[in-house]
């Protein structure tokens, strides 16, 4: 079985590509969904984040104020590093468990959707990287629509992420998501054939 990391900057359409492969019957995992699971109220990761960033990141009901954590963590390189050190080990453990389950089920390919795969401990688990890219302003629009934030906040989030050129250097295939859903599906299918041949 080959494990393929689907990566790209925020608002590029990684989720749509992952959904396409899931619809074709391939097992998939969403690193962002896993990262939300490990930050449920009362979790050890959440307690560690409170120690690092202060109890103000928790709402009165004990749930995480995600936007507040993001603002604090991504404000400095040290904050980003602290967030990664706390959350990455548990995320990787769960992704590896999902990969093992896919392997035992006889899957030929296993896809992991994650913006931060490159440079993370999970990168070495990947046999290939698929980059999903999109024009900058198109990504800004998608982030605003998805997360209900201002264009300024969306741009700040994008500007804090690695540039597309850097991501491209690691990718065995790329999908340019700058047209409609049909074009995206066609590109996803073409990339799939390329990845099968790795």
Topology (elements, then pairings):
Elements: E1 2-7, H1 14-23, E2 28-30, H2 31-37, H3 44-53, H4 66-73, H5 77-104, E3 109-113, E4 128-133, H6 136-147, H7 151-159, H8 164-168, E5 173-176, H9 181-196
Helix pairs in contact: 1-9, 3-5, 6-7
Order of helices and strands: EHEHHHHEEHHHEH
Biggest sheet features: 5 strands, parallel
The count of β-strands is: 5
Q: State which percent range the strand residues make up.
A: 5-15%
| Helix/strand/pairing category | alpha/beta
Strand order, main sheet: write it out: 2-3-1-4-5
Poorly predicted runs of 5 or more residues: none
User: What is the CA-based Rg, rounded?
Assistant: 17 Å
Query: Given the structure, what is the number of helices?
Result: 9
User: Mean pLDDT score, rounded?
Assistant: 94
Helix content bin: 40-55%
End-to-end C-alpha gap: 11 Å
* Rough outline: globular
What does this structure look like?
Helix 1 (14-23) packs across helix 9 and helix 6 crosses helix 7 (151-159). This protein has 9 helices and 5 strands; from the N terminus they run βαβααααββαααβα. A 5-stranded parallel β-sheet has the order 2-3-1-4-5, with helices on both faces. The radius of gyration is 17 Å and the shape is globular. Helices cover 53% and strands 12% of the residues. It is an alpha/beta fold and 198 residues long. The mean pLDDT is 94. The termini are close together.
């Amino acid at each position: 079985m080959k494990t393929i990391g689907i990566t790209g900057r925020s608002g590029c359409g990684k989720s749509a590509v992952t959904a396409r492969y899931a619809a074709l019957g391939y097992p998939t995992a969403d690193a962002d969904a896993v990262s939300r699971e490990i930050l449920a109220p009362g979790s050890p990761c959440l307690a560690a984040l409170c120690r690092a960033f202060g109890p103000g990141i928790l709402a009165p009901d004990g749930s995480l104020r995600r936007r507040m954590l993001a603002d604090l963590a991504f404000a400095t390189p040290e904050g980003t590093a602290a967030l990664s050190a706390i959350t990455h080990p548990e995320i990787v453990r769960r992704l590896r468990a999902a990969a093992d389950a896919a392997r035992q089920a006889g899957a030929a390919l296993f896809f992991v959707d994650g913006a931060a795969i490159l440079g993370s401990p999970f990168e070495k688990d990947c046999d290939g990287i698929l980059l999903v890219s999109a024009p900058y302003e198109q990504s800004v629009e998608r982030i605003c629509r998805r997360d209900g934030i201002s264009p300024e906040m969306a741009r700040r989030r994008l500007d804090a992420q690695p540039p597309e050129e850097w991501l491209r250097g690691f990718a065995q295939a790329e999908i340019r998501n700058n047209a409609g859903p049909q074009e995206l599906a066609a590109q996803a299918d073409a990339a799939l054939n390329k990845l099968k041949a790795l």
